[in-house]
């Protein structure tokens, strides 16, 4: 886990990239019904806007509150693994909430059926939490932490 604000920012940049790209692939795949090069291309082309939105939400809206909630839920003697799992879970759930709205607005901007916004948003939340939480806890989190520490050993990014 990052140990200061600069490390946290670099880690957030890396984690947002992995999560946004994966969840974009997942959502476009669900919409298309098949995985193809077109799904990959669409996810890649949509990545910059989704990534910027997620990065801003993570850094300015979700992170501080999620970490406060996580550390209120944790006993003072919690293991590092329990801390990681709790903080990650507390980050994923609000990010799914907000980014599912982003996805619903993006889809409806093409169809112009704005009366369907809350239905689509709710459906997106359910579909996304089923993928995002396990992906974050089992794949993205461990992978990004390992790559982050390999590139930036403890103490190389100063506060």
TrEMBL record:
Record's protein name: Integral membrane protein
Transmembrane segment boundaries: 9-30, 42-63, 84-105, 117-140
Keywords noted in UniProt: Membrane, Transmembrane, Transmembrane helix
Pfam family, any one: DUF2798
InterPro entries: DUF2798
Coiled coil segments of this chain: none
Superkingdom classification of source: Bacteria
